Hints:
Strand order of the largest sheet: 3-4-2-1-5-6-7-8
Number of helices: 26
Strand content: 15-25%
Shape: elongated
Structural class: alpha/beta
Helix content: 25-40%
Number of strands: 26
Amino acid sequence: MKKDKFYILMFSVHGLLRYHDMELGRDADTGGQIKYVVELAEELCKNENVKGVDLFTRFISEKNLSDDYSKEIEQVSDKFRIVRIQCGGKKYIRKELLWPHLDEYIDKVLKFLKKEEIYPDIIHGHYADAGYVGMELSKFFSIPFIFTGHSLGRSKKKKLIDDGMNSSDIEQKFNIEYRIAIEEEVIKNADIIVTSTKQEVTDQYGMYVNNNLGDYFVIPPGVNLDKFYSFHHNKMSEIKREEGSISAYGAMIEELNRFFIYPDKPLVLSLCRAEKRKNISGLIHAYGQDKELQAMANLAIFAGLRKNITDKEENEKNVLTEMLLLMDKYDLYGMMAIPKKHDSTYEVPELYRITAEKKGVFVNVALTEPFGLTLIESLACGLPVVATNDGGPRDIIANCKGGILVDALDVKAIINAIKSIIADTEKWKSFSSAAIRNVSKYYKWSAHVDKYLKEIKKLSVSDVKSEIAKTTKDNPVGDILRRLKHFIITDIDDTLFGDAEALDAFMKIFYKNRDSIGFGVASGRTVESIEKLFNENNLELPYIIISSVGSEIHYTSKSFQDKGWQTHLSKKWDKSKIKNILDKLDFIEPQPEENQRTFKISYYMAPAKDRLNTIHDILLKSGCYYNLIYSNDKFLDILPYRASKGKAIRYISYKWDIPLDKIMACGDSGNDVEMFKGSIMGLIVGNYKKELESLRKKKNVFFSDKNFAYGIIDGMKKYGLI
């Protein structure tokens, strides 16, 4: 991109996310990804090529959670904010249940950006849900979209099946097929896919149909070396340590000592979420089966945050319960610690350093490990590791030379690796010093950021992969709609069209004022019909196309549909049920198939006494939710109860923060009635149908005596738009 400085929008939608005292391990959604995203944003803001970063997450307000998660804006620094947007209510929802609410989230992000007068240069989504959000937003702004998966649905599904879970249970609990479908789209549309390892590209993304369409860049995460520094520093009096670090050191020593009979022994440390994939049971089996290892070292497992196991999700509850049962089975009391909590800011770094001081080992024997952030943190502190021979740990050990890789399912191999490091002082020292030296060489955040920005700078608008973004690159919809002062939305037939000279006069006025006045249409026509009509008349397509009597909204073309409006309309809409009921009536006739839409059922009906009342009566008694529109004594449309041209305009007003009293709606017939509700500026052209006569009583509706588009121009003068 030909820019010197970038304003970056980052998204991590699903987590309980804050800058300080991150509650890592609280549940399955608050793992290393949270820390990665926050630290990446913070490090980006230290670079002179970054104007600022807004990290968007979800607004959560719940009495058993910290008030921090209900702060709409958390100002981390002069260039870095955490922005919380509400969707799906205020209570915390696990990520698998968030999918139906993401279009609402997108709408509110757009509203926030317009209010703040923000125009981003880059959008970066983390995890599949944020990938969807980022992909959709990038279309509005015609800017590059970056994606980091962190974990992927296809590999998760395979692992769950291998563990014995059947496909239907997986789908019911994790909504996995929808997630996989979204990931396929994200891979196809992302301009850059950031991965941590080469194996992630080949083994995980390689499982996807669209894998060859992805542009992958391997950029390993960094580690904060100001927090995760060598254990030697704790012993050096000339090094000034933070007060929080000193108190955390004492608190962790005290916490560990209350579990151990012999607290001075070396320590085997594990730090992870209570998740089956982390293979905590494998480590306990290894420790429990070897008396010599028990004599050599104590074991401490920090498995997330908890108050009461019975309050946890089923998966976490099962893992934590198994830990306790195995502790009892092997009689590990006095040798094994299972603390309930830890503070990620100060206590986790001190845990690594305490373990290093005791000449212990950090162990991560997860069954699968995409990267392994805890490994580079522990290595940075000078603590040797035993790690699973999978994914990220292979690269980490190859680069840092600070430990041993093992088969996570081989208990003997785990035992032997731990014992070989603890028993051999020279090996321990060699691993420790190599780790400290090489983490600084390979895993600095500054190096990650330099590579990240280097790839961004290579991109130009013409490189943006999204076809929608390409078609709107000269006039991005998001840029247009965020700066408009007024908007004109007009019916097409017999309002905008009908007099060629009037149409030409209106379009000339619009082109002259397009920087301040937006132009949209609202019609019973399909979007395909509208596009054809405008193309045949050599007219530029409107910014907004409300089509099929308000059941669809598009931006600039049929390929760019407003998915938020679709989600909004889907509530309580049962098209097949309504169609089955009405098709039995002998006084209505279905319109052609091209007029039938996902959210519209259309018929021809001649006017006759009580026919409309009959339809209403049948549908209401059948428990249907709908909106019925009858116009021109001919057209009968059944829509979702939330749909109409007027409701679509009000949705646009909300989404793009354009006040209704700044919108002029223009029409001529009965299916335009709903457009004139509220404080909108109403305009009815001189050639109107008699069914609109009752609107003369409304103060905000102007009846022009000029026909067709001349009436629209008359209305623009009346309301002071020109």
